[in-house]
Structure formats: C-alpha cells, structure tokens
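Pilot study result, target chain (143 residues):
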Amino acid sequence: MIDAVGMEAHGSPLASFAQKATAVVPDAIMEKVMQVAGVDRLAALNTAIEAVRRGGTISLSGVYGGATDPLPLMRMFDKQIQLRMGQANVWRWVPDILPLLTEGDPFGVDDFATHHVPLEEAPQAYMNFREKKEGTVKVLLTP
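Predicted structure:
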C-alpha cells in the first residue's frame, strides 16, 4: 500500500481548520505551534492502515509535517504493519528519469489526463477532482 497524499488529503475537519489557521496567523507564531502541536489530515494514512494485509508494508511518500499526529499504534502492532517513509531523493534519480520524460511517451501517460484547462481554472478543476465531478481523474494545467 502506498500513501502519496499526506497533507493534501481531505479528511479531519479539525486538521483542516488547523492548517487553514496557518494562513491567517503570523508565520513566526504558527511555525512554533506546528512544531509543538501540529496535526496532519490522516484520512489517507488511516485508510492505508485498514486496507493493508496483516504483516504488510505501508510506504509513506506523502508530505506529513505535524508534530503530534495520533496513530493507531495498537491496531498497527496487531496487524504487524511495517512503515517505510521519507522524502524521495529526487536529485539522485533525475539523470535516469529525465530522458524518459523528454523522449516520447514510453509509459503511455500522455493521454491519461481527463481534463486540460488553463491555469486560471485550476481552483474549479481541483474542486471537480476532489468532489469526483465531471469524470475528473487527472487535470493537466496549461499556462
């Protein structure tokens, strides 16, 4: 099971409120608050914990920044779950990946986007994606 959502997942209203508060409270104050009492939206992680098989591995490549995220450790221990996590070492792989992105479409993903919209329509496109409207699966934004 792979969680590649992290902070951007939609779930806990309390975590959502805390993240929105960071936009209105001065950075110097909110940085300290998030270091001590920050929480993430853990809906995707909790789904992964429930979905992974007994003895399975959950790989977290999402962006988690909360200092006090509650985890269901008893459930995780009972299921014998392994957690693998960390930020991707992107620069290590750039020389290998870049040719794959510039030389044709070896993975056949060019047609994966269900919607192509100008950058100005990004907020509406994101809402459509989040709410599963208009068959939105992947949006390609054009400048």
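One observation from the pilot: The chain has six helices and five strands. A full batch analysis is planned for the follow-on phase.
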